[in-house]
Amino acid sequence: MEVAILTVGDEVLAGETTNTNAAWLATELTERGVTVTRILTVPDDEAVIAERVREFADAFDAVVVTGGIGGTHDDVTVEAVARAFDRELVVREDQRERLLARAESFREANPELAADYEFDVDLDALASLPAGARALVTDESWAPGCVVANVHVLPGIPEEMRAMFDLVADEFRGDRTSETVYTPAPEGALGGALSAVREQFDVTVGSYPAPVDEPGRIRVGGSDPDEVAAAVAWLREHVETCAPPE
């Protein structure tokens, strides 16, 4: 299963917000045996988002989009996904009723805020989803996410994104496995061994140097657990290894 991650947000591109969502999702998906093939960040631009969603939906088994859902002027992700699939936006009455109830509960629980501020929330906009979409609802997020075909739309706030991903996590399964070998050898001394592993075994191999006084990592991956295990065993015989850092 090959998956693309699309992060939406001008603030991410400007460096004002660190893209922790992509890193967390990549880790979660990889642990499920999925291959993350693309990670891309795009601005809060409906046309750009739609173009990439359309491209990735055709090219990969699934797409996970984070950011840009809600009721503010720059929350255009849901509209862009509808545009990508040439679907209309539909106000979901069940979602509108849920949002209205949450708004009333919020006012009751926060009377001082209700007295000091006038809230201007477009419930119709918040409750609108592409026609035929499956709504994703959590207690952590006001706006619903959704699934349209093979595209999963999640919030940008990390806590909300993780809670909503839990709703669809079981839909991401693959047969890829991986194992990490730690070594004190510098990366420049590993070229021969890594080339030999690639030639002898049907695996992918990556070398990742570490800061001084910490071991580097050799990551071996593949769809056959026995092949991965054999490649790792070969590496342990031909490369100096050590325990992982504490």
- Broad CATH class of the largest domain: Alpha Beta
Order of helices and strands: EHHEHEHEHHHEEEEHEHEEH
Helix fraction bin? 40-55%
- Find the structural class using helix and strand composition: alpha/beta
Overall average pLDDT: 92
Distance between the termini: 32 Å
| Portion in beta strands | 15-25%
Strand line-up in the sheet with most strands: 2-1-3-8-7-6
The name of the CATH topology of the largest domain is Molybdenum Cofactor Biosythetic Enzyme, Chain A
Rg, alpha carbons: 22 Å
Strand tally, please? Answer: 11
The main sheet comes to: 6 strands, mixed
CATH superfamily of the largest domain: MoaB/Mog-like domain
Tell me, what's the shape?
Answer: elongated
Provide the number of structural domains.
2
Please report the number of helical segments: 10
Spans where pLDDT lies below 50 across 5 or more residues: none
CATH architecture descriptor of the largest domain: 3-Layer(aba) Sandwich
